[in-house]
Amino acid sequence: MKGYISSGGPHSGVIRIPHTNYEKYEKLINNLAEDLVYTPEIQYAIAPAGYFRSLRYYDRYLDDCILLPYLNNQKVFN
After folding, report:
1. What's the pTM?
2. Exposed, middle or buried by CB within 10 Å (0-12, 13-18, 19+), for 49?
3. What ranges in the chain are assigned the alpha helix state H?
4. How confident is the model over 7-40, as pLDDT tens digits?
């Protein structure tokens, strides 16, 4: 396959844990998840971590996320 065109899907990722808001303890949980999601242990052990896109840590997202930047052509393919 040389190219892939999709009309929908999770290509933009998620910016917080699904079904949570930024209220009370949920804000703390989402901030903690955002701090830890790009560690190698989390990236390779928890599959949905590959779909997490951080707005605070965009450089870490591009450097350490193992799936989403490649799907979105934000990294160079070999």
Report:
1. 0.74
2. buried
3. 24-36, 40-45, 58-64, 68-71
4. 666 678 888 888 888 788 999 999 999 999 999 9
Give the dihedral of Cα atoms 49, 51, 55, 61; nearest 10 deg: 70
Residues 58-73 as b or e (16 or more Cβ within 10 Å = b): eeebeebbeebbebee
Report which of 42, 78, 6 is spatially closest to residue 61, judged by C-alpha positions. 42
Tell me the two tokens of residue 54.
């951080």
Structural domain including 31 reads 9-78
User: Domain tally for the chain?
Assistant: 1
In this structure, is residue 30 part of a structural domain? yes
Residue 50 DSSP class: G
